[in-house]
């Protein structure tokens, strides 16, 4: 009898021990450009992530594990991002990192994530982040080649066959330029002007004057604000009537504010459904999530949710899904993210695999247009 009682006691202690392990803490790090030129990316990412962590912990955490969040401001600087990534791993002992906000920063941090075997879920779009596949690296924005294809397919529909491209000379712009040129050649477009600008340039009339003389059917600008907003104003000032496309790098109301509604009128670009979720069908698999995210963000911060904040939203939820299915160690989180199938996020429906660490396709984007200071679906 005593042996039986002892056995029961041991079993109860074992169960209590397992429960205690399940009620631990998951330490997640984040690197965002909260201040500096890329703050329009980093600020909504930080806001979104902190909001999600508060909500998650209020519900009891992820499978009983509370989330402890460590967020650092990189200011968009790759050197600082590297220093802070090391701090997150060595000092804060995080099991996963969300971010950075930009392609250049992400490329600088990747070797650290790979060496220390910590899953990194980037919020930047450059295709080189996940192509070729790196074991410990994922990203939530759709690849820039997907955005390039979406623009060119739309231009083809309008019988625009000669294209001028104007790209920023940073990691995002260089990748976009490469993808645009490759995709244009593949689809039978002719690039009649190929101009570049610096992230710090405040006037692009010289490049646009050359583009105007090229008599292109359309202009594709590839960058993140403030450059694209400046270009949009310059196009208006120079009286250029050539249709202007922007990349998904400006898919937020901030672009319209910076460019001015009058100058931005008619500008077209590929974007996730968040920007126009109130105009999509209610039975769309993303509609409920997009509506709930936007309403929660408005309640918390007084402004609309942005596509960029959505990148952080998806990164956190992918990590949470991995924890639920696989466990809390870095390796279990990595394996869990890689096994995600048909996971509905803000940026699209993700299906990861050992050969695809982005998991999004053309369905992640709709073509949208500026009309009277707001976004509408492009006809």
What does this structure look like?
The radius of gyration is 22 Å and the shape is globular. The chain has 13 helices and 14 strands. The longest helix has 21 residues, at 2-22. The protein is α/β, with parallel strands linked by helices.
Structural key phrases:
five-stranded parallel sheet; 379 residues; four-stranded parallel sheet; alpha/beta; 17% strand
| Rg calc | 22 Å
- What overall geometry do the principal axes of the alpha carbons give? globular
Strand residues, percent? 15-25%
For the secondary structure, the number of strands is 14
* Topology order in helix (H) and strand (E) letters: HEHEHEHEEHEHEHEHEHHEHHHEEEE
Low-confidence stretches: 4-22
- Mean pLDDT comes to 93
Approximately how much helix is present in the residues?
A: 40-55%
Measured between the Cα atoms of the first and last residue, the distance is 79 Å
Q: What's the main sheet like?
A: 5 strands, parallel
Question: Helical stretch count?
Answer: 13
Q: What is the topology, as strand order, of the major beta sheet?
A: 2-1-3-4-5
Which structural class do you get from the secondary structure elements?
Answer: alpha/beta
Topology:
Layout: H1 2-22, E1 25-32, H2 39-58, E2 66-73, H3 78-90, E3 96-98, H4 103-116, E4 120-122, E5 137-139, H5 144-157, E6 162-168, H6 171-187, E7 190-197, H7 205-214, E8 218-222, H8 227-237, E9 244-246, H9 253-259, H10 261-264, E10 268-271, H11 287-301, H12 307-325, H13 330-338, E11 343-344, E12 349-350, E13 366-371, E14 374-377
Parallel strand pairs: 1-2, 1-3, 3-4, 4-5, 6-7, 6-8, 8-9
Antiparallel strand pairs: 10-13, 11-12, 13-14
Helix pairs in contact: 2-12, 3-4, 5-6, 8-9, 12-13
């Amino acid at each position: 009898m005593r042996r039986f009682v002892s056995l029961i006691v041991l079993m109860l202690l074992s169960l209590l021990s397992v429960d205690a392990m399940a009620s631990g803490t998951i330490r997640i790090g984040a690197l965002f450009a909260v201040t500096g030129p890329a703050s329009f990316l980093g600020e909504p990412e930080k806001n979104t992530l902190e909001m999600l962590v508060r909500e998650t912990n209020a519900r009891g955490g992820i499978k009983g594990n509370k989330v402890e969040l460590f967020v650092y401001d990189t200011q968009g600087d790759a050197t600082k991002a590297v220093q802070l990534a090391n701090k997150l791993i060595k000092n804060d002992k995080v099991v996963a990192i969300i971010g950075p906000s930009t392609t250049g920063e992400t490329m600088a941090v990747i070797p650290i994530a790979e060496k220390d075997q910590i899953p990194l879920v980037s919020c930047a779009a450059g295709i080189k982040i996940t192509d070729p596949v790196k074991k410990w690296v994922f990203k939530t924005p759709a690849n820039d080649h997907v955005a390039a294809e979406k623009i060119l397919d739309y231009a083809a529909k309008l019988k625009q066959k000669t294209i001028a491209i104007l790209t920023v000379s940073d990691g995002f712009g260089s990748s976009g330029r490469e993808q645009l040129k490759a995709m244009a050649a593949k689809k039978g477009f002719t690039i009649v002007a190929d101009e570049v600008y610096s992230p710090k340039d405040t006037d692009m009339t010289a490049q646009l004057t050359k583009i105007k003389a090229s008599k292109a059917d359309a202009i594709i600008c590839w960058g993140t604000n403030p450059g694209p907003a400046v270009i949009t104003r310059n196009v208006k000032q120079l009286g250029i009537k050539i249709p202007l496309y922007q990349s998904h790098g400006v898919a937020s109301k901030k672009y319209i504010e910076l460019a001015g509604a009058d100058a931005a009128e008619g500008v077209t670009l590929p974007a996730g459904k968040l920007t126009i979720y109130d105009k999509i069908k209610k039975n769309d698999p993303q509609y409920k999530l997009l509506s709930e995210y936007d309403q929660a963000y408005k309640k918390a911060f007084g402004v609309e949710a942005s596509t960029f904040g959505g990148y952080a939203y998806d990164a956190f939820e992918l990590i949470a899904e991995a924890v639920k299915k696989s466990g809390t160690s870095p390796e279990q989180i990595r394996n869990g993210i890689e096994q995600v199938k048909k996971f509905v996020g803000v940026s699209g429906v993700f299906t990861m695999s050992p050969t695809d660490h982005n998991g999004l396709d053309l369905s992640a984007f709709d073509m949208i247009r500026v009309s009277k200071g707001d976004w509408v679906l492009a006809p």
